[in-house]
Design a protein that fits this description.
The protein is α/β, with parallel strands linked by helices and 318 residues long. The protein has a single domain, classed as 3-Layer(aba) Sandwich (UDP-N-acetylmuramoyl-L-alanine:D-glutamate ligase). The protein is built from ten helices and 14 strands. The protein has a ten-stranded mixed beta sheet with strand order 5-4-1-8-9-10-11-12-13-14, sandwiched between helices. Strands 3-2-6-7 form a four-stranded mixed beta sheet. Helix 5 links the parallel strand 9 and strand 10. Bound molecules: adenosine-5'-triphosphate (ATP). The site of adenosine-5'-triphosphate (ATP) has 21 residues, from helix 8 and helix 9.
C-alpha cells in the first residue's frame, strides 16, 4: 500500500485553444476539470496501475468541498483535514504552439498545528495499516516553515524506522532543507530546472546534468531521478548512473507528467519490482500522462505498451 501526502491540492482547469493571445479577449471551449496537486496525481496514477493508495492532505473553503466531491469518485482512499482558507485553483492554457501557460494560486496556509496533525495522521495510518511500503510526500505547501518536510522525514523515521521508503517530490528551499537534513528521503525527482536551481548551476541539456549527479547534496539519497521531459531522465541508483531515453510521442498535455512518474515509481516500489522495471513504469506513466488531456492520468494500455520502448543504459559507477 502507498500513502501520499498533498498539502496543497487544487481544482485544475485546463483550456485547450488554437487562438490564445496575451493581452486579448480569449474565448475557449469548456475546460477539462479535475482535482490536482502532485500527491493526488501520483495517487491516481498508482491506483490506476493497481496499487492500494491512501491519500492524505488538507482542504479548505468552498473549493475544498468541491475537491472532496471529486475525490469521492477516485479509486483511492482519502483523508483530508479541513483547514481555514480556500483550496487553490490552477489554470493551464495549452495553446496553438503547445505552450503551457499556468496560473496557480497560493493555497491555504499550512500552520505548524496543521502540519503536526497531518504528520500524526501519516504515522497512525501507517502503523495501523501494516501493508504500507511507501510514503510519497509531494508538492508545494503554503507555509512559513521552511523545515516542514525536513521535520516530516525526521519524525517519520523516529516513529516508523527505516523499513518504509519515503519518496519526496519537492522543489526550492523545502527540497534543499530535506537534502541537508539528517534524515534523507529514499527517492527524489527534481526535473532538470529544479535540479539546476538546487545545485546553483545553469543546466540546459541532459548531458549538462551528468557531472552533477555526484553532487554532495545527493549523498545518501539511494534513488535520484532527474526528469528531462521528452528527453526521458537520468537516474542515480546508489552508485550507478543510468541514462533513460524514451520514444517520441504525439503530446497532448504534459502537465502532471512528473507527478505520474512519481506514481509509477511508487507503484514499482510497492510491487517490489526491480529498479529497472520500476524506471520503465515511471517513464511510461509520464508519457502516458502526456498523451491525455487530463492531468495526472494514465491508461494501463498505454503504460504497458510504452514501458517496453524505454531504453535504460548504464553510464558508469560513481
Ligand atoms: P510536471 O511538473 O508537469 O508534473 P515535471 O517537469 O516534473 O512535470 P517532466 O520532466 O516534464 O516532469 O516529465 C516527467 C516524465 O514524463 C519524463 O521523464 C517523460 O518520461 C515524460 N514526459 C514528459 N514530457 C514529455 C514529452 N513532451 N514527451 C514524452 N514524454 C514526456
Amino acid at each position: 500500500m502507498i500513502l501520499t501526502v498533498t498539502l496543497n491540492p487544487s481544482m485544475d482547469s485546463i483550456y485547450f485553444t488554437d487562438t490564445f493571445s496575451i493581452g486579448a479577449m480569449n474565448r475557449c471551449n469548456n475546460p477539462v476539470k479535475a482535482v490536482g496537486g502532485k500527491g493526488i496525481n501520483a495517487s491516481r496514477t498508482a491506483a490506476i496501475l493497481g496499487s492500494r493508495v491512501q491519500a492524505i492532505g488538507v482542504l479548505a473553503g468552498e473549493n475544498g468541498k468541491l475537491i472532496q466531491t471529486h475525490l469521492e469518485t477516485e479509486h483511492f482512499d482519502s483523508f483530508f483535514l479541513t483547514i481555514p482558507g480556500e483550496s487553490r485553483n490552477a489554470v493551464t492554457i495549452m495553446d496553438q504552439a503547445k505552450n503551457q501557460t499556468e496560473i496557480v494560486e497560493l493555497g491555504p496556509e499550512i500552520t505548524d498545528t496543521t502540519a503536526k496533525e497531518i504528520l500524526q495522521k501519516i504515522i497512525t495510518l501507517t502503523t495501523s495499516e501494516k501493508e504500507v511500503t511507501t510514503i510519497a510526500v509531494c508538492g508545494s505547501a503554503n507555509t512559513k516553515n521552511e523545515q516542514l518536510y525536513k521535520n516530516y522525514l525526521e519524525e517519520i523515521q523516529a516513529s516508523l524506522g527505516n523499513s518504509i521508503k519515503v519518496l519526496t517530490d519537492l522543489s526550492g528551499i523545502q527540497l534543499k532543507n530535506v537534502l541537508t537534513g539528517p534524515v534523507k528521503p529514499y527517492f527524489i525527482k527534481p526535473n532538470i530546472q529544479e535540479f539546476s536551481e538546487l545545485i546553483g548551476q545553469p543546466l540546459k541539456q541532459k548531458k549538462d546534468v551528468i557531472p552533477y549527479l555526484s553532487h554532495e547534496l545527493l549523498d545518501n539519497v539511494p534513488f535520484v531521478l532527474i526528469s528531462c521531459g521528452s528527453l526521458g531522465a537520468l537516474a542515480r541508483v546508489n552508485n550507478q548512473l543510468f541514462d533513460i531515453t524514451i520514444p517520441q510521442i504525439e503530446v497532448v498535455n504534459p502537465t502532471g507528467s512528473g507527478d505520474a512518474t512519481v506514481g509509477g515509481i511508487a507503484y514499482g516500489l510497492d510491487q517490489h519490482f526491480s529498479i529497472e522495471e520500476t524506471l520503465r513504469y515511471a517513464m511510461a506513466c509520464g508519457m502516458s500522462n502526456a498523451l491525455e488531456k487530463k492531468v495526472g492520468f494514465v491508461t494501463m494500455t498505454n503504460v504497458l505498451a510504452l514501458k517496453n520502448q524505454i531504453n535504460i543504459v548504464k553510464i558508469k559507477n560513481i
